[in-house]
Amino acid sequence: DTGVSQDPRHKITKRGQNVTFRCDPISEHNRLYWYRQTLGQGPEFLTYFQNEAQLEKSRLLSDRFSAERPKGSFSTLEIQRTEQGDSAMYLCASSLEVRGLGYTFGSGTRLTVV
Amino acid sequence: SQQGEEDPQALSIQEGENATMNCSYKTSINNLQWYRQNSGRGLVHLILIRSNEREKHSGRLRVTLDTSKKSSSLLITASRAADTASYFCATDEVVANSGYALNFGKGTSLLVTP
Asked: Is any Cβ of chain A less than 8 angstroms from the Cβ of B4?
């Protein structure tokens, strides 16, 4: 296990289509986070899981967004009826439960909605 | 909303020079972290400083924290072209129950020329 993996690296989709991204965290990390980053901005928090429980969702996460983490392992982030404003880099990170530790980020999935 | 604000937004220096980036934040923190991001990639954790610490070193990195001024600085000494990247500060804050998530600033873009 060499780190956090995200798939796909790039996704181009037409407006209105649904897309799903996958994140495989470091196996012993029980916390998993999703962030969104647009050009020239820092990452913005979307949601996070502790094991399989989704504990918080940002107001940025509209009803078109849904995230799951079945069995507390990998996670998926689905965007339904994509809009051009959804174009961004979607970053996944994982960490241990202990507060005050750094996060390990994946390389991200770059979504382009045309 | 983004918690930290980095200053400057962009910094250009020559190899061998030192680079200093500053971060200001708004709320009380448990710890402050610095991350690096190469273009189009995920973030890499550099260093973490706790609220009861004032200074921390890691290789060519030196981080200071002034909780009274709600500010932090990252110093990279003897910079190299490979240090070219965006640098973000992040503070952790409560997001749900006992959960925490990192809140990132907009970053400083550092260019180190040979």
From this structure: yes
- Is the confidence at residue B80, as pLDDT, over 80? yes
The string of DSSP letters for chain B reads: ----EEE-SEEEEETTS-EEEEEE--S--SEEEEEEE-TTS-EEEEEEEETT-SEEEETTEEEEEETTTTEEEEEE-S--GGG-EEEEEEEEEEEETTEEEEEE---EEEEEE-
CB contact B56 to A (< 8 Å): no
Residue A68 pairs in a beta bridge with A76
Quote the minimal CA–CA distance from A81 to chain B in Å: 25
- Model pLDDT for residues A96-113, shown as the tens digit of each residue: 877 667 899 999 999 999
Interface residue B92 vs chain A (CB under 8 A): yes
